[in-house]
UniProtKB/TrEMBL annotation:
Organism: Dietzia aerolata
Pfam families cross-referenced by the UniProt entry: Cyanate_lyase (PF02560), CYNS_N (PF21291)
The keyword Lyase is assigned to this record: yes
Protein name per UniProt: Cyanate hydratase
Class of enzymatic activity (EC top level): lyase
Annotated gene: cynS
One GO MF term attached to the UniProt entry: cyanate hydratase activity
Length: 149
């Protein structure tokens, strides 16, 4: 019996096919009818996809059932130390290092003692034109979870 393809291998196949066909992540999300950031994360191996979603995107990209099967598997979420050192990803770490304490204080001020969920969570990504250079707009939208004693 052949082992199930790993999520990272399936992700590599998806990304290669996407690049070779000149497709964008937005096109894949539109094809699936799913949110852009979630779709991109799922196709990069951070979320399991339904069998229907995986089959649909693999048909679009001309990929086999082995890739589709890998996309449905439960992930081991996270980012490697090598990826964390990437300048784009590192800037998110830097932004949270600078603004994290202020955001925590504001959450406590507005909501009380608790946290923002990263499970009941949505992320939105947009490009906004600006005369001084286009802006990256990222919205983190998490449910407030209060500490219950």
């Amino acid at each position: 019996m052949k082992p199930i393809m790993s999520k990272s291998d399936a992700a590599a196949h998806v990304d290669s096919a996407r690049i070779r066909q000149g497709r964008t992540w937005a096109e894949l999300a539109d094809h699936l009818g799913t949110p852009l950031v979630w779709t991109t994360a799922a196709l990069l191996g951070q979320h399991p996809m339904s069998a229907e979603q995986a089959r649909s995107v693999c048909e679009l990209l001309g990929l086999g059932e082995d890739v589709s099967e890998g996309l449905t598997m439960q992930p081991s979420r996270g980012t490697s130390a090598e990826e964390m050192a990437d300048p784009t990803i590192y800037r998110f770490t830097e932004a949270l290092a600078v603004y994290g304490p202020a955001l925590k204080a504001l959450i406590h001020d507005e909501f009380g003692d608790g946290i923002m969920s990263a499970i009941n969570f949505q992320v939105d990504f947009q490009r906004r034109e600006d005369p001084d250079g286009d802006r990256v707009v990222i919205t983190l939208d998490g449910k407030f979870l209060d500490y219950q004693w």
